[in-house]
Write a structure and sequence with these properties.
By secondary structure, the chain is mainly beta. The protein folds into two domains: about 30 residues; about 130 residues, Immunoglobulin-like (Sandwich), CATH 2.60.40. It is built from one helix and 15 strands, in the order ββαβββββββββββββ. A hairpin with a 2-residue loop joins strand 1 and strand 2. The N and C termini lie far apart (about 65 Å).
Length: about 200
């Protein structure tokens, strides 16, 4: 075996086969680079909440806030908490679609977003909700000033869908009339969840 410079491959002979092996320093540099890339992609710090939508718990919700679960992590990031501290995580699904994950008490809530954040006052946003549990879904929106309202339209049950998240599916629309942290609340007979979104 002949040693070359760290960037040059080393040729090893094994029987009739000649194998190229990258030098140890090059392998180390590659390993460190991949580790840094993975750390950057999975870092707990997300985008500026003013640039991405998020979810929160309604102050008027009958169930206790899910703040105990706020530090939990979903596949799209840290779960949201009341007051958009933090806002609910939004992740890319590909095909120009994004989804938001709700902070749930005993269950799961996912929302397929049909309009891309950031959201502004006056925007109407369609969301296809997927929620585990039993019974019909009940939806409400709480504005930053505490005003609680039903969605602009819906919920409408969806019987067929290719949105692959657990639970049953409904569609609803929300109109944002104020800037600040909005709480989108969802409840079924045996579970509740909230999404906190920032509207600019």
């Amino acid at each position: 075996m002949a040693a070359g410079h760290w960037w040059q491959p080393i040729l090893l002979t094994h029987g009739d086969e000649r194998l190229k092996v990258v030098g140890m320093a090059a392998r180390t540099a590659l390993t460190v680079g991949v580790a840094l890339l993975i750390a950057a992609c999975t870092s707990g710090t997300g985008p500026n909440p003013a640039q991405r939508g998020t979810a929160a718990t309604s102050p008027a919700a009958a169930t206790p806030p899910a703040s105990a679960q706020a530090a939990a992590t979903s596949s799209v990031g840290t779960l949201g908490a009341p007051g958009c501290r933090p806002s609910s995580p939004i992740g890319d699904l590909g095909g120009f679609r994004q989804e938001v994950r709700g902070t749930a008490i005993k269950g799961e809530l996912w929302g397929l977003l049909f309009e891309e954040p950031p959201y502004r006052v006056g925007d109407e946003v369609k969301i296809a909700w997927r929620m585990t549990g039993n019974g019909d879904i009940r939806l409400s929106a709480t504005a930053p000033d505490g005003t609680r309202t039903p969605p602009a339209w819906g919920p409408e049950a969806h019987t067929g869908s290719n949105y692959d998240r657990p639970g049953d599916e409904w569609g609803a629309g929300y109109r944002f009339t104020q800037a600040g942290c909005w709480t989108l609340h969802a409840a079924r007979d045996d579970t509740t969840a909230d999404v906190w979104l920032i509207v600019g």
